[in-house]
Amino acid sequence: MAGSLVAVASVILTMPMHVPHFPDRGGEVTATMSSVGVGGAFPVMVAARRQGVEVWSAACMGTGPNSTMVAEELGREGIRVISSDVVGDIGMKLVLVEADGYISSVVAPGVEAEQELGFLRRIQVSAGDMVYISASDLVSPAYQSALEGWLPELTDGVSLTLALGPQIKEVDPEWLARILPNIDLLTMNRRETDLLRNVLGRETLHEALEQVMKPSAVIVRRESSRGCWVTVGPSSNPVEVPAFPSKVRDTAAVGDAHTGVLCASLLRGFDPITAARRANAAGAIMVGRPGGRNLPDSEAVEELMRQSSLT
């Protein structure tokens, strides 16, 4: 039986707005499409759950209406919620999507960053499970402190995944160097790769990671329409996993879909290369679906892989 994905990454309300271009300073631009949804770790968890693995959300949530809405959305997706019930409410993120698919965000934080060690210690994590954390949360001193106290206490056989994000550039390098030796799966895009190198003060990703990550660690670097590169062990040569052909309609949550399917596939026992190929298939499906909310299930992923093998 596959282990569970336990996400201790935050969830937040999002307002995606598609704009033809950024407004000039002091100016205004009209959005062509907008919506309100749930972001943060939510699409990662949904993508994993739709691959058939059990998913638990241990995000720090409050008692306000935003938190209630998120908890209901998680429940509808079959994701189990480990409630913290901090007084207050989670924040919101405005996501601007330009015509070429480039995404920029503005975050108004709430209680999602107020993670506590005592709460994490109440989570039951077993051998074979995977704990998911996001670099987006690592700028919070409270989150840093809670994680640093909790990670060494995890049961043997629990794997740890870290998904990078733009906020990695704001994380203290010394603290990051203490956490990276615990990581079993590190996933990032091209821009985040450069940010990580700069944070760790190295010329190449290989130099940045070979001294701090465990020999068995899996490193996945997404390359947009080119697919991704997978390295099993920071000192090994990366293996290219090509992308599936796709017509780009929307890039929202594509990286999240890739990460969620990658995590679920590893939990289901697929080797890292096959897991990355399944994640690439999920990404190809996502870019063809507008709105960033139609995360693919396992059947859709397998069907695309079958079709590709026949051509």
Automatic annotation (TrEMBL):
UniProt name for this protein: Carbohydrate kinase PfkB domain-containing protein
Gene Ontology terms for molecular function: kinase activity
Q: Which keywords does this chain's UniProt record carry?
A: Kinase, Transferase
Which PANTHER family does this chain map to? RIBOKINASE (PTHR10584:SF166), SUGAR KINASE (PTHR10584)
Task: Please name the InterPro entries in this protein's record.
Answer: PfkB_dom, Ribokinase-like
Q: Which residues form the Carbohydrate kinase PfkB domain?
A: 36-294
GO cellular component terms?
Answer: cytosol
- Origin: domain of life: Bacteria
